[in-house]
Amino acid sequence: MSNKILAEIEEEAANCMKCGLCRKICPIFDELENEATVARGKVNLIQNVIEGNIELTDKYEKLMELCLLCKACVDNCPVGIEVDKMVFKAREHLAKEKGLSWMKKGIFSFVKNKGLFPLGMKLGATFQGLAFCKNKGSQQGNNIRVGIGMDPNRVLPDLAKEPFRDRYPEIVKLNNSAGRVAFFTGCSINYMQPDFGESVVNVLLENDIEVVIPKEQHCCGLAIGSYGDIEKSRELAEHNLDVFSKYDVDAVVTACASCGSTLKEEYEEWLDDDSFSSKVYDISEYLVDVIDFDREDLGKLRRKVTYHDPCHLVRGMKVSEQPREIMKSIPGLYFEDMKKPDRCCGAAGTFNIKNYDLSMKINRHKIDDIKQTGAGTVATGCAGCKIQITDGLNQAGMSQEVVHTVQLLDEAYQKRREEREEEEVKVIS
Amino acid sequence: MFKQSLINRFKDILGEDNVLTSKEDLLSYSFDSTPDFESIVPELVVMPESTEQVSEVVKIANEKEINIIPRGAGTNLCGGTIPVENSIVVVLTKMNKILEIDEENLTVTVEAGVITQAINEAVEARELFFPPDPGTVAVSTIGGNIAECAGGLRGLKYGVTKDYVMGVEVVLPTGKVINAGGKTVKNVTGYDLPSLYSGSEGTLGIITQATLKLLPLPDTKKSMMAIFDKLDGAAETISSIIRNKVIPVTLEIMDQVTIQSVEEFANIGLPTEAAAILLIEVDGIEEVVERDAKKVVKICKENGAREVKLAKNEEERFEIWEARRASLSALGRMRPTTILEDATVPRSNIPDMIRGVNKIAEKYDLHIGTFGHAGDGNLHPTILADERNEEEMKRVHKAVEEIFDLALGLDGTLSGEHGIGIAKAKYMTKELGEDGLQALRDIKFSLDPKGILNPHKVIGAGDNE
User: Fold this and answer.
1) Strand, coil or helix: what is B98?
2) Which residues in chain A are closer than 8 Å to B74, comparing Cβ atoms?
3) Which residue range forms the structural domain that includes residue B285?
4) Any domain includes B416
5) Do A19 and B74 touch (CB under 8 A)?
6) Partner of B150 for a Cys bridge, out of A83, A380, A398, B134, CB 3.0 to 4.6 A?
7) Domain check: are B199 and B240 in the same one?
8) Domain check: are B213 and B239 in the same one?
């Protein structure tokens, strides 16, 4: 087989025993029950492409698209076959051989463009009223007006009128800082969940850590790479490496699981260098493992919380204890785990846009699991998961609030400050 | 290629979505978990949702003389669900309802496509227990487990799948539906068909429903790990435990090659110079478990165990079993192709079996790790190779045949729990003789005169007419 891209994974494919234990764990197979959609089935199809038994048909392309890259099969595989990486390569191969659709090409070039993308997102925020109408269901957000190919019942957040990175100076200075980190915001936090970003900055400052938010940073490249356009992803990675190496920082923190695991795992491969990757921490990991965050000045939050493990956090960055430790340290907060907190919520980056119905079927299990806990708050560590879970809750008529873990921590610090002010007022009077 | 009109007949019965025709889909049902066998692409894959649909499908197949490959999760290790020429794969995973849990008669009635672990989860909630637990219990279906007579880690005390099948609903090769057995403990009305269908490997009909025996869930359990410098010490321990009237649920052995592979892979502190490790679990009511565990520890020490670990809590129990869980992973990761045999001998012959396998490994210059269910004599010599290397595979095939001869010479059997399928069909006369095999063929063709149900499996190819 002359194909270089697939040749790289031929050996890994040969190691798959086809034992079928992946049938237990694949959220897509759970819904579709077709052997072609489960990990060993995909490995078999890729092998058949390598051996020249099948062409790069639309059906094959569709089957390779039907992967959440959630890594559940990798984690469960007795021999640790990295099926997500194989699917990634199969998509890269498809993009190279068949080319990307004009639409994908257009979108990827737009996202990669460092001038146009921010401008477009700001214009989008200004004119979003044209496309959106207020959701009347149990969750806050917007429904899409008909006409742009998305389900009209779907709930999406506002595009931020003022993107997160415009709200802060590039360096949020502290006088006597105990450390200095750079914050990789990612697109979702910058344009859709600036509240996540604000809490990240607040809790870092609360712990005397100076925060650098490089203005020049750009999309991490995962979404583009996962559709096979590795060249553009690599360019983005090189750009971000250049930008972040300008600052003298102890660490690079992320607050969105997909960006974090891309910076940590994929960049090492794309850039063939781990000097950047080794400095990357998820915010919860940084707070717990690196600086041992301040647990004294936490006010009471009286609420029951459950936590959704984003795939790229629990299986990508191997972070799952740290967010729980943060929540359990907050006085008054009652934490209860779901039955399967680490099952994919179905968002999977842009998967949910192209495969909305399937992604919501997968999401349904998560919503039922949340319901079982009786929690009023769902914490998570990824903007994509938050949007997907919020939508699912809305469809189910449930009103649980969905937040980032650090938002709870931020709130607890604020609560303590308020408590203290009240105490001072009492003392004075 | 089937004519469109024929495909449409299946679609009329099953609905559009339950008939798979694309090349990509068909390729996905051309193989199962069995290594080292050529995949064969079926003509069609169908996914019935009811016994009636299965029956209708079989009737057409019978009329048109199309071969039928019944399939559950496709996780067997004997090539039992690899298609043959001119075949339809009938996937039963959409028939996945637990129909009834009967706490008074201690039975559960299920459709064939229910995942065996799901049965366990459902009955455990009522403090009941379905003991058979093959390694694939989390994914394999009960229909497949019955058809293959799956075993597992609890065979020594609780037996295997056939010991729990009280009744079956079967679609015969003609499409007729029969029910045999039921909820009564005693039933001698006619031939014992539930037993005939246990281990029938899909060659005599399609099992669509089953009524299974349940036991009360044991109160408690205790796990131990014993490390031996000499293989004989481990072997004598196995015999001595049984002689002393302790029947552990699980009594597993790992040989030195396996220990070394696991340690290299998982780094869990196993002594790589040890000759064998025994992993033992006893269960039952608390007083008995305490007494049995003490007895086992004593017997291990008397037989030269250099160290015996007794798990004090669930965490330690998990750690002890980590070594066994990692066995297949560790061996599987060393080379691309992992051939897991399951020749079985009376437990008293285990040391001779392990020594014999080691000699065969040396003779053919192969890496063979042996681990398995020592308590019931069911060992898994695991041969590591690369199926793309022809020369090496020739040596593997010779070694496999010698392992079978070795087991038969030690009063054993070709397969303890994986089944015959296509993988071992050619060795059948070694154990049964010509007349014995002919008896099986007579049974097969009296029920399936056209030979359309899972042809070539068990009784071999070329003898179907």
Assistant:
1) strand
2) 20, 35
3) 220-409
4) no
5) no
6) B134
7) no
8) no
Which pLDDT value is given to residue A219?
94
Residues B225 and B95 in one domain: no
Please check whether residues B363 and B451 belong to one and the same domain.
no
How many residues in chain B?
Answer: 465
C-alpha pair distances (Å), A282 with each of A220, A263, A318, A340: 14, 10, 10, 22
Nearest Cα to B22, choosing from A104, A100, A63, A127? A63
Residues of B in contact with A44 (CB under 8 A): 27-28, 30-31
ipTM score here?
0.94
Q: Write out pLDDT tens, residues B39-49.
A: 999 999 999 99
The residues that bridge with A282 in the sheet, in sequence order, are A254
What's CA B309's distance to the chain center, in Å? 29
Same domain, B32 and B145: yes
Burial (CB count <10 Å: 0-12, 13-18, 19+), residue A195: middle
The number of domains in chain B is 2
Phi, psi of A247 (to 5 degrees): -110, 145
CB atoms within 10 A of CB B231: 19
The answer, for B96 touching chain A at a CB cutoff of 8 Å, is no
Q: Which of residues 8-47 of B touch A (CB under 8 A)?
A: 20, 22-25, 27-33, 35, 47
Q: Which of residues 332-361 of B touch A (CB under 8 A)?
A: 332-333, 336-338
Q: Looking at B382, B409, B436, which one is the last position of a domain? A: B409
Q: What is the pTM of this model?
A: 0.92
B166 vs B142: CA distance, rounded Å: 13
A41 touching chain B per CB within 8 A: yes
Look at residue B334 and tell me if it is in a domain.
Answer: yes
- Report the C-alpha gap between A62 and A126 in whole angstroms: 35
Instruction: Read off the pLDDT of residues A337-386 as tens digits, 9 standing for 90 and up.
Output: 999 999 999 999 889 988 999 999 999 999 999 999 999 999 999 999 99
Average pLDDT rounded to a whole number, residues B229-242: 92
Output the domain CATH number for residue B238.
Answer: 3.40.462.10
Same domain, B126 and B86: yes
Interface-testing mutation among B19, B27, B81, B388, with chain A (most A C-beta atoms within 10 A):
B27
Q: Residues 77 to 106 of A: which have CB under 8 A from any B CB?
A: 78-80
Q: Do B94 and A33 touch (CB under 8 A)?
A: yes
A34 and chain B in contact, CB less than 8 A: yes
Cβ contact A282:A322 at 8 Å: yes
Q: Which residue type occupies A196?
A: F
- Pick left, alpha or beta for residue B66 (phi over 0 → left; psi -120 to 50 → alpha; otherwise beta): beta
pLDDT tens-digit readout, A209-240: 999 999 999 999 998 998 889 899 999 999 99
Mutate to test the interface with B, among A19, A21, A54 (most CBs of B within 10 A): A19
Assess if residue B35 is contained within a domain.
yes
DSSP string of A221-234, one letter each residue: SHHHHHTT-HHHHH
- Both B134 and B240 in one domain: the answer is no
Taking the CA of residue B166 and the nearest CA in chain A, the distance in Å comes to 27
Asked if B192 and B302 sit in the same domain, the reply is no
A51 touches chain B (CB under 8 A): no
Q: For residues A10 and A62, is the Cβ–Cβ distance under 8 A?
A: no
Of B409, B433, B456, which closes a domain?
B409
Phi, psi of B311, rounded to the nearest 5 degrees: -70, 130
Q: How far A15 CA lies from chain B's nearest CA (Å)?
A: 4
With contact defined as beta carbons under 8 Å apart, do B186 and B71 qualify?
Answer: no
B417 within some domain = no
Q: Is A249 left (phi over 0), alpha (psi -120 to 50) or beta?
A: beta
CA distances A112 to A23, A223, B28, Å, are 37, 11, 37
Q: How far is CA A134 from CA A138, A158, A305, B91, in A?
A: 12, 10, 27, 46
